[in-house]
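Figure 6 in text form: structure in, sequence out.
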Protein backbone atom coordinates (compact mmCIF):
# COMPACT_ATOMS: atom_id res chain seq x y z
CA UNK A 1 0.00 0.00 0.00
CA UNK A 2 1.28 3.47 -0.93
CA UNK A 3 1.54 5.53 2.29
CA UNK A 4 2.20 8.74 0.41
CA UNK A 5 -1.12 8.39 -1.43
CA UNK A 6 -2.98 7.85 1.85
CA UNK A 7 -1.40 10.91 3.45
CA UNK A 8 -2.35 13.17 0.55
CA UNK A 9 -5.90 11.84 0.45
CA UNK A 10 -7.18 13.26 3.78
CA UNK A 11 -6.64 17.00 3.06
CA UNK A 12 -8.32 16.51 -0.31
CA UNK A 13 -11.46 15.18 1.42
CA UNK A 14 -11.43 18.07 3.90
CA UNK A 15 -11.32 20.57 1.00
CA UNK A 16 -14.95 19.76 0.16
CA UNK A 17 -16.23 21.78 3.12
CA UNK A 18 -14.07 24.83 2.39
CA UNK A 19 -15.63 28.01 0.79
CA UNK A 20 -15.74 27.78 -3.03
CA UNK A 21 -13.29 29.93 -4.95
CA UNK A 22 -11.60 29.90 -8.34
CA UNK A 23 -8.76 27.43 -8.15
CA UNK A 24 -8.02 26.66 -11.83
CA UNK A 25 -5.10 29.15 -12.11
CA UNK A 26 -3.55 27.64 -9.04
CA UNK A 27 -4.11 24.07 -10.25
CA UNK A 28 -2.72 24.86 -13.72
CA UNK A 29 0.38 26.43 -12.22
CA UNK A 30 0.84 23.44 -9.96
CA UNK A 31 0.55 21.00 -12.89
CA UNK A 32 3.08 22.96 -14.93
CA UNK A 33 5.41 23.06 -11.95
CA UNK A 34 5.14 19.28 -11.45
CA UNK A 35 5.89 18.58 -15.12
CA UNK A 36 8.88 20.90 -15.19
CA UNK A 37 10.16 19.45 -11.92
CA UNK A 38 9.86 15.89 -13.24
CA UNK A 39 11.79 16.82 -16.39
CA UNK A 40 14.54 18.51 -14.41
CA UNK A 41 14.73 15.61 -11.96
CA UNK A 42 15.02 13.03 -14.76
CA UNK A 43 17.68 15.10 -16.48
CA UNK A 44 19.67 15.44 -13.27
CA UNK A 45 19.34 11.71 -12.57
CA UNK A 46 20.62 10.78 -16.01
CA UNK A 47 23.47 13.29 -15.67
CA UNK A 48 24.49 12.06 -12.21
CA UNK A 49 24.36 8.37 -13.13
CA UNK A 50 26.22 8.97 -16.38
CA UNK A 51 28.93 11.04 -14.68
CA UNK A 52 29.36 8.52 -11.85
CA UNK A 53 29.37 5.32 -13.87
CA UNK A 54 33.04 4.84 -13.04
CA UNK A 55 31.99 4.22 -9.42
CA UNK A 56 30.82 0.73 -10.40
CA UNK A 57 33.41 -1.67 -9.00
CA UNK A 58 35.14 -4.23 -11.17
CA UNK A 59 33.29 -7.20 -9.67
CA UNK A 60 29.94 -5.71 -10.65
CA UNK A 61 31.22 -5.17 -14.17
CA UNK A 62 32.45 -8.75 -14.19
CA UNK A 63 28.92 -9.92 -13.43
CA UNK A 64 27.56 -7.95 -16.37
CA UNK A 65 30.25 -9.19 -18.72
CA UNK A 66 29.84 -12.83 -17.65
CA UNK A 67 26.07 -12.71 -18.11
CA UNK A 68 25.89 -10.79 -21.36
CA UNK A 69 29.18 -11.79 -22.93
CA UNK A 70 29.98 -8.13 -23.50
CA UNK A 71 32.03 -5.42 -21.86
CA UNK A 72 30.05 -2.21 -21.61
CA UNK A 73 32.02 0.85 -22.62
CA UNK A 74 29.09 3.25 -22.94
CA UNK A 75 27.69 5.60 -20.32
CA UNK A 76 24.71 4.40 -18.31
CA UNK A 77 21.61 5.98 -19.77
CA UNK A 78 18.22 5.68 -18.11
CA UNK A 79 16.60 6.27 -21.47
CA UNK A 80 18.29 3.27 -23.08
CA UNK A 81 17.15 0.34 -20.93
CA UNK A 82 16.24 -1.90 -23.85
CA UNK A 83 19.84 -3.03 -23.78
CA UNK A 84 19.91 -5.74 -21.06
CA UNK A 85 23.61 -5.16 -20.48
CA UNK A 86 23.01 -1.47 -19.86
CA UNK A 87 19.94 -2.12 -17.71
CA UNK A 88 21.71 -4.58 -15.43
CA UNK A 89 24.60 -2.17 -14.94
CA UNK A 90 22.12 0.60 -14.16
CA UNK A 91 20.32 -1.52 -11.56
CA UNK A 92 23.57 -2.52 -9.91
CA UNK A 93 24.66 1.10 -9.76
CA UNK A 94 21.35 2.31 -8.29
CA UNK A 95 21.32 -0.39 -5.59
CA UNK A 96 24.92 0.16 -4.59
CA UNK A 97 24.65 3.96 -4.49
CA UNK A 98 21.07 4.72 -3.43
CA UNK A 99 19.90 1.79 -1.32
CA UNK A 100 19.51 3.05 2.23
CA UNK A 101 22.00 0.57 3.70
CA UNK A 102 25.43 -0.64 2.64
CA UNK A 103 25.19 -3.68 0.39
CA UNK A 104 27.52 -6.66 0.63
CA UNK A 105 28.98 -6.82 -2.85
CA UNK A 106 29.47 -10.59 -2.92
CA UNK A 107 25.90 -11.16 -1.71
CA UNK A 108 24.61 -8.82 -4.43
CA UNK A 109 26.50 -10.69 -7.12
CA UNK A 110 25.45 -14.11 -5.78
CA UNK A 111 21.89 -12.80 -5.88
CA UNK A 112 22.22 -12.18 -9.61
CA UNK A 113 23.36 -15.77 -10.13
CA UNK A 114 20.56 -17.14 -7.95
CA UNK A 115 18.06 -14.98 -9.82
CA UNK A 116 19.14 -16.31 -13.20
CA UNK A 117 18.44 -19.90 -12.19
CA UNK A 118 15.27 -18.99 -10.27
CA UNK A 119 13.91 -17.36 -13.43
CA UNK A 120 13.63 -20.85 -14.93
CA UNK A 121 10.65 -21.40 -12.61
CA UNK A 122 11.87 -24.96 -12.05
CA UNK A 123 11.77 -26.15 -8.41
CA UNK A 124 14.51 -28.68 -9.17
CA UNK A 125 17.07 -26.23 -10.60
CA UNK A 126 19.33 -24.38 -8.16
CA UNK A 127 22.45 -22.25 -7.95
CA UNK A 128 24.89 -23.14 -5.16
CA UNK A 129 27.50 -20.91 -3.61
CA UNK A 130 30.82 -22.61 -2.90
CA UNK A 131 29.70 -23.28 0.67
CA UNK A 132 26.34 -24.67 -0.41
CA UNK A 133 27.95 -26.91 -3.01
CA UNK A 134 30.36 -28.33 -0.45
CA UNK A 135 27.35 -29.13 1.74
CA UNK A 136 25.65 -30.85 -1.20
CA UNK A 137 28.71 -33.04 -1.74
CA UNK A 138 28.54 -34.09 1.91
CA UNK A 139 24.93 -35.13 1.33
CA UNK A 140 25.93 -37.28 -1.63
CA UNK A 141 28.69 -39.06 0.28
CA UNK A 142 26.43 -39.52 3.30
CA UNK A 143 28.86 -38.11 5.89
CA UNK A 144 28.19 -34.80 7.60
CA UNK A 145 27.75 -32.99 10.91
CA UNK A 146 24.02 -32.76 11.50
CA UNK A 147 21.12 -34.34 13.36
CA UNK A 148 20.68 -37.68 11.58
CA UNK A 149 17.26 -37.37 9.98
CA UNK A 150 16.11 -37.85 6.41
CA UNK A 151 14.03 -34.95 5.09
CA UNK A 152 11.69 -34.51 2.16
CA UNK A 153 10.13 -31.33 0.78
CA UNK A 154 6.68 -31.08 -0.75
CA UNK A 155 7.27 -29.03 -3.92
CA UNK A 156 3.67 -27.76 -3.99
CA UNK A 157 3.28 -26.70 -0.34
CA UNK A 158 6.92 -26.10 0.62
CA UNK A 159 6.50 -28.27 3.74
CA UNK A 160 9.59 -30.15 4.93
CA UNK A 161 8.85 -33.47 6.61
CA UNK A 162 11.05 -35.94 8.46
CA UNK A 163 10.69 -39.29 6.72
CA UNK A 164 13.25 -41.22 8.77
CA UNK A 165 15.13 -40.78 12.03
CA UNK A 166 18.37 -42.75 12.23
CA UNK A 167 19.23 -44.69 15.37
CA UNK A 168 21.60 -43.23 17.96
CA UNK A 169 21.66 -39.76 16.41
CA UNK A 170 20.89 -36.27 17.79
CA UNK A 171 17.48 -36.45 16.09
CA UNK A 172 16.53 -39.64 17.90
CA UNK A 173 17.96 -38.45 21.21
CA UNK A 174 15.94 -35.21 20.93
CA UNK A 175 12.71 -37.11 20.41
CA UNK A 176 12.13 -36.25 16.74
CA UNK A 177 9.83 -38.64 14.89
CA UNK A 178 9.16 -39.64 11.32
CA UNK A 179 6.19 -37.59 10.17
CA UNK A 180 7.22 -34.44 12.06
CA UNK A 181 7.08 -31.30 9.93
CA UNK A 182 10.00 -28.88 10.38
CA UNK A 183 8.61 -25.34 10.31
CA UNK A 184 11.96 -23.61 10.85
CA UNK A 185 15.60 -24.15 11.78
CA UNK A 186 17.19 -21.36 13.81
CA UNK A 187 14.24 -19.19 12.64
CA UNK A 188 14.89 -19.87 8.94
CA UNK A 189 11.52 -20.88 7.48
CA UNK A 190 11.40 -24.15 5.57
CA UNK A 191 8.87 -22.86 3.03
CA UNK A 192 11.18 -20.00 1.99
CA UNK A 193 14.05 -22.09 0.62
CA UNK A 194 14.68 -25.16 -1.48
CA UNK A 195 15.59 -28.25 0.49
CA UNK A 196 19.33 -28.14 -0.22
CA UNK A 197 19.58 -24.59 1.12
CA UNK A 198 17.34 -25.27 4.12
CA UNK A 199 19.33 -28.33 5.16
CA UNK A 200 22.40 -26.12 5.42
CA UNK A 201 20.78 -24.36 8.41
CA UNK A 202 20.29 -27.71 10.14
CA UNK A 203 23.85 -28.83 9.59
CA UNK A 204 26.82 -27.07 11.09
CA UNK A 205 29.85 -27.51 13.30
CA UNK A 206 29.99 -30.57 15.48
CA UNK A 207 28.83 -29.84 19.04
CA UNK A 208 26.77 -26.75 18.17
CA UNK A 209 23.01 -26.52 18.66
CA UNK A 210 20.23 -26.00 16.15
CA UNK A 211 16.75 -24.99 17.33
CA UNK A 212 13.94 -26.57 15.34
CA UNK A 213 10.29 -25.54 15.36
CA UNK A 214 8.30 -28.72 14.78
CA UNK A 215 4.67 -29.27 13.84
CA UNK A 216 3.46 -32.62 15.14
CA UNK A 217 -0.19 -33.48 14.56
CA UNK A 218 -1.13 -29.78 14.51
CA UNK A 219 0.81 -28.90 17.66
CA UNK A 220 3.97 -26.80 17.49
CA UNK A 221 6.93 -27.55 19.73
CA UNK A 222 10.53 -26.42 19.91
CA UNK A 223 13.28 -29.04 19.84
CA UNK A 224 16.98 -28.34 20.31
CA UNK A 225 19.46 -30.76 18.72
CA UNK A 226 23.19 -30.82 19.29
CA UNK A 227 24.89 -31.51 15.98
CA UNK A 228 27.17 -34.53 15.69
CA UNK A 229 29.12 -36.31 12.96
CA UNK A 230 26.62 -38.52 11.17
CA UNK A 231 27.26 -41.36 8.77
CA UNK A 232 23.72 -42.06 7.65
CA UNK A 233 23.20 -45.58 6.26
CA UNK A 234 21.12 -45.63 3.10
CA UNK A 235 20.49 -49.39 3.17
CA UNK A 236 19.05 -51.47 5.99
CA UNK A 237 18.22 -55.17 5.87
CA UNK A 238 16.90 -58.10 7.86
CA UNK A 239 15.48 -61.57 7.38
CA UNK A 240 11.71 -61.86 7.74
CA UNK A 241 9.65 -64.96 8.37
CA UNK A 242 9.65 -67.61 5.68
CA UNK A 243 13.19 -66.77 4.55
CA UNK A 244 11.98 -63.54 2.98
CA UNK A 245 14.74 -60.96 2.79
CA UNK A 246 13.94 -57.31 3.49
CA UNK A 247 16.06 -54.47 2.05
CA UNK A 248 15.07 -50.84 2.67
CA UNK A 249 16.78 -48.12 0.62
CA UNK A 250 16.29 -44.58 1.93
CA UNK A 251 18.16 -42.75 -0.86
CA UNK A 252 20.69 -43.38 -3.61
CA UNK A 253 24.14 -42.00 -2.82
CA UNK A 254 27.68 -42.91 -3.82
CA UNK A 255 27.85 -45.66 -1.21
CA UNK A 256 24.38 -47.16 -1.76
CA UNK A 257 25.37 -49.73 -4.39
CA UNK A 258 28.11 -51.27 -2.23
CA UNK A 259 25.81 -51.30 0.81
CA UNK A 260 23.00 -52.84 -1.25
CA UNK A 261 25.18 -55.66 -2.59
CA UNK A 262 26.53 -56.35 0.91
CA UNK A 263 22.97 -56.56 2.27
CA UNK A 264 21.75 -58.81 -0.55
CA UNK A 265 24.68 -61.21 -0.24
CA UNK A 266 24.28 -61.36 3.54
CA UNK A 267 20.62 -62.36 3.13
CA UNK A 268 21.59 -64.90 0.46
CA UNK A 269 24.02 -66.49 2.90
CA UNK A 270 21.15 -66.84 5.39
CA UNK A 271 19.04 -68.78 2.88
CA UNK A 272 16.88 -66.01 1.38
CA UNK A 273 14.31 -67.41 -1.08
CA UNK A 274 12.46 -64.16 -1.93
CA UNK A 275 12.91 -60.47 -1.17
CA UNK A 276 11.05 -57.24 -0.35
CA UNK A 277 12.59 -54.00 -1.62
CA UNK A 278 11.27 -51.06 0.42
CA UNK A 279 11.37 -47.82 -1.57
CA UNK A 280 8.82 -45.98 0.56
CA UNK A 281 9.84 -42.41 1.42
CA UNK A 282 12.89 -42.70 -0.85
CA UNK A 283 13.18 -39.29 -2.50
CA UNK A 284 15.76 -40.40 -5.07
CA UNK A 285 19.40 -39.50 -5.50
CA UNK A 286 22.04 -40.41 -8.05
CA UNK A 287 20.96 -41.98 -11.33
CA UNK A 288 24.27 -43.86 -11.61
CA UNK A 289 23.66 -45.45 -8.20
CA UNK A 290 20.21 -46.83 -8.99
CA UNK A 291 21.36 -48.01 -12.45
CA UNK A 292 24.21 -49.99 -10.85
CA UNK A 293 21.73 -51.71 -8.55
CA UNK A 294 19.37 -52.52 -11.40
CA UNK A 295 22.32 -53.90 -13.40
CA UNK A 296 23.08 -56.12 -10.40
CA UNK A 297 19.51 -57.45 -10.18
CA UNK A 298 17.92 -57.52 -13.63
CA UNK A 299 18.43 -59.59 -16.78
CA UNK A 300 19.95 -58.02 -19.88
CA UNK A 301 18.19 -54.99 -21.30
CA UNK A 302 17.57 -51.23 -21.01
CA UNK A 303 16.63 -50.24 -17.44
CA UNK A 304 15.98 -46.56 -18.18
CA UNK A 305 16.72 -44.03 -20.90
CA UNK A 306 16.76 -40.24 -21.12
CA UNK A 307 16.04 -37.63 -23.77
CA UNK A 308 17.21 -34.03 -23.77
CA UNK A 309 15.53 -31.13 -25.60
CA UNK A 310 17.42 -32.02 -28.78
CA UNK A 311 16.07 -35.62 -28.61
CA UNK A 312 19.53 -36.96 -27.85
CA UNK A 313 18.97 -40.35 -26.27
CA UNK A 314 21.09 -41.90 -23.53
CA UNK A 315 20.40 -45.52 -22.57
CA UNK A 316 21.32 -47.20 -19.30
CA UNK A 317 21.43 -50.97 -19.45
CA UNK A 318 21.89 -54.15 -17.50
CA UNK A 319 24.27 -56.74 -18.92
CA UNK A 320 22.53 -59.58 -17.06
CA UNK A 321 25.78 -61.04 -15.73
CA UNK A 322 24.66 -60.95 -12.08
CA UNK A 323 20.93 -61.42 -12.70
CA UNK A 324 19.12 -62.43 -9.49
CA UNK A 325 16.20 -64.75 -10.16
CA UNK A 326 14.24 -64.47 -6.90
CA UNK A 327 10.56 -63.49 -6.49
CA UNK A 328 10.33 -59.93 -5.18
CA UNK A 329 7.97 -57.18 -4.05
CA UNK A 330 8.63 -53.44 -4.23
CA UNK A 331 6.92 -51.26 -1.61
CA UNK A 332 6.14 -47.68 -2.69
CA UNK A 333 4.18 -44.63 -1.53
CA UNK A 334 3.54 -41.01 -2.47
CA UNK A 335 7.06 -40.08 -1.34
CA UNK A 336 8.77 -42.60 -3.63
CA UNK A 337 10.38 -40.29 -6.17
CA UNK A 338 12.99 -39.78 -8.86
CA UNK A 339 15.68 -42.50 -8.76
CA UNK A 340 13.39 -44.67 -6.61
CA UNK A 341 10.81 -44.42 -9.38
CA UNK A 342 13.47 -45.46 -11.92
CA UNK A 343 13.95 -48.59 -9.80
CA UNK A 344 10.20 -49.19 -9.55
CA UNK A 345 9.56 -48.58 -13.26
CA UNK A 346 12.30 -51.01 -14.29
CA UNK A 347 11.01 -53.75 -11.98
CA UNK A 348 7.51 -53.26 -13.39
CA UNK A 349 8.51 -53.21 -17.06
CA UNK A 350 10.79 -56.25 -16.71
CA UNK A 351 7.92 -58.12 -14.98
CA UNK A 352 10.47 -58.78 -12.28
CA UNK A 353 8.25 -58.33 -9.23
CA UNK A 354 4.99 -57.06 -7.74
CA UNK A 355 4.58 -53.41 -6.72
CA UNK A 356 2.52 -52.79 -3.57
CA UNK A 357 1.50 -49.51 -1.92
CA UNK A 358 0.21 -46.19 -3.22
CA UNK A 359 0.89 -44.13 -6.35
CA UNK A 360 4.44 -42.77 -6.47
CA UNK A 361 5.40 -39.09 -6.54
CA UNK A 362 5.91 -38.56 -10.27
CA UNK A 363 9.34 -36.97 -10.77
CA UNK A 364 10.40 -38.07 -14.23
CA UNK A 365 13.14 -35.54 -14.95
CA UNK A 366 16.89 -35.59 -14.40
CA UNK A 367 19.11 -32.85 -13.00
CA UNK A 368 22.78 -32.36 -13.75
CA UNK A 369 25.04 -30.58 -11.28
CA UNK A 370 27.78 -28.61 -13.00
CA UNK A 371 30.65 -27.33 -10.81
CA UNK A 372 32.14 -23.94 -11.65
CA UNK A 373 35.78 -22.91 -11.34
CA UNK A 374 35.20 -20.70 -8.28
CA UNK A 375 33.83 -23.62 -6.21
CA UNK A 376 30.18 -22.79 -6.84
CA UNK A 377 27.86 -24.95 -8.94
CA UNK A 378 24.58 -24.96 -10.80
CA UNK A 379 22.05 -27.78 -10.81
CA UNK A 380 19.62 -27.67 -13.73
CA UNK A 381 17.07 -30.01 -15.21
CA UNK A 382 18.64 -31.42 -18.38
CA UNK A 383 16.64 -34.49 -19.39
CA UNK A 384 13.38 -36.40 -19.15
CA UNK A 385 13.71 -40.07 -18.28
CA UNK A 386 11.60 -42.95 -19.58
CA UNK A 387 10.95 -46.41 -18.18
CA UNK A 388 12.08 -49.39 -20.30
CA UNK A 389 8.64 -49.51 -21.97
CA UNK A 390 9.01 -45.87 -23.06
CA UNK A 391 6.71 -44.24 -20.47
CA UNK A 392 7.36 -40.81 -18.99
CA UNK A 393 6.03 -40.85 -15.43
CA UNK A 394 6.60 -37.14 -14.78
CA UNK A 395 3.62 -35.55 -13.09
CA UNK A 396 1.68 -38.81 -12.76
CA UNK A 397 3.91 -41.33 -11.00
CA UNK A 398 3.66 -45.12 -11.10
CA UNK A 399 0.49 -46.92 -10.04
CA UNK A 400 1.16 -50.03 -7.92
CA UNK A 401 -0.01 -53.48 -8.97
CA UNK A 402 -1.78 -53.71 -5.62
CA UNK A 403 -3.15 -50.47 -4.14
CA UNK A 404 -2.80 -50.51 -0.35
CA UNK A 405 -2.65 -47.54 2.03
CA UNK A 406 -0.26 -47.84 4.97
CA UNK A 407 -1.84 -48.86 8.26
CA UNK A 408 -0.17 -49.47 11.60
CA UNK A 409 -1.52 -52.73 12.97
CA UNK A 410 -0.23 -52.34 16.51
CA UNK A 411 -1.85 -50.88 19.59
CA UNK A 412 -1.40 -47.48 21.24
CA UNK A 413 1.56 -48.63 23.32
CA UNK A 414 3.30 -50.54 20.54
CA UNK A 415 6.29 -49.17 18.69
CA UNK A 416 6.91 -49.72 14.99
CA UNK A 417 7.74 -53.22 13.91
CA UNK A 418 7.55 -55.00 10.56
CA UNK A 419 4.95 -57.22 12.23
CA UNK A 420 2.67 -54.16 12.56
CA UNK A 421 3.29 -52.84 9.03
CA UNK A 422 0.31 -53.88 6.88
CA UNK A 423 2.15 -53.30 3.60
CA UNK A 424 5.05 -55.55 4.60
CA UNK A 425 2.57 -58.16 5.77
CA UNK A 426 0.79 -57.99 2.40
CA UNK A 427 4.16 -58.46 0.69
CA UNK A 428 4.75 -61.61 2.74
CA UNK A 429 1.34 -62.89 1.67
CA UNK A 430 2.09 -62.28 -2.01
CA UNK A 431 5.51 -63.92 -1.84
CA UNK A 432 4.13 -66.91 0.07
CA UNK A 433 1.76 -67.50 -2.85
CA UNK A 434 4.56 -67.65 -5.44
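Output sequence:
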Amino acid sequence: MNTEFETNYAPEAALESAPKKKIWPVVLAAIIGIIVGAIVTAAVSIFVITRQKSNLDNSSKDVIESITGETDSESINLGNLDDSNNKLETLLYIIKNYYYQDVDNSALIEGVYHGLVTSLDDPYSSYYTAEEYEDLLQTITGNYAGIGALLQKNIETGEVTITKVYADTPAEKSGLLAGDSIVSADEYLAVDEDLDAFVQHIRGDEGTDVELLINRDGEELTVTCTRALVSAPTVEHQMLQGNVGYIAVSQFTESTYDDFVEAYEDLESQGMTSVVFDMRNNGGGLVDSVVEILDYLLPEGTVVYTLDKYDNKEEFTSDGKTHKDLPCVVLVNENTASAAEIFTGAVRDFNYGTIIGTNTFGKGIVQSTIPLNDGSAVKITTQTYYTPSGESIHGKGIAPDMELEYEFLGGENDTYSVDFDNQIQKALEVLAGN
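Caption detail: DSSP finds twelve helices and 19 strands in the chain.
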